[in-house]
Design a protein that fits this description.
Elements lengths: L2 H9 L2 H28 L6 H25 L8 H4 L1
Helix pairs in contact: 2-3
């Protein structure tokens, strides 16, 4: 097993996804506050990237929670797709 294989196995583990999701959930209120400040100041056009950061952060939290829940319910005896072919 090479170093890249073990790295990608670690990145795909359910515990890494859980820690990543918790980190993104912690950052979500800060990005929401920044978004409220930008909109209340009327500068959403000038600081458009803050709106994008909040949207990407919110979507990432949803995707991390979905990925973690799907990894928890994954059956361990599934055969890889390549073996079916």
């Amino acid at each position: 097993m090479s170093a890249t294989d073990s790295f990608f196995k670690f990145i795909g583990s359910k515990w890494f996804i859980l820690v990543l999701g918790i980190g993104l959930m912690i950052a979500l209120p800060f990005t929401w506050h920044n978004l409220k400040v930008v909109f209340s100041a009327g500068q959403a056009g000038k600081y458009w990237y803050l709106v994008g950061v909040f949207i990407i952060n919110a979507l990432s939290v949803l995707l991390c929670s979905y990925k973690f829940m799907s990894l928890l319910t994954k059956k361990s005896n599934q055969t890889p797709i390549s073996s079916e072919w």
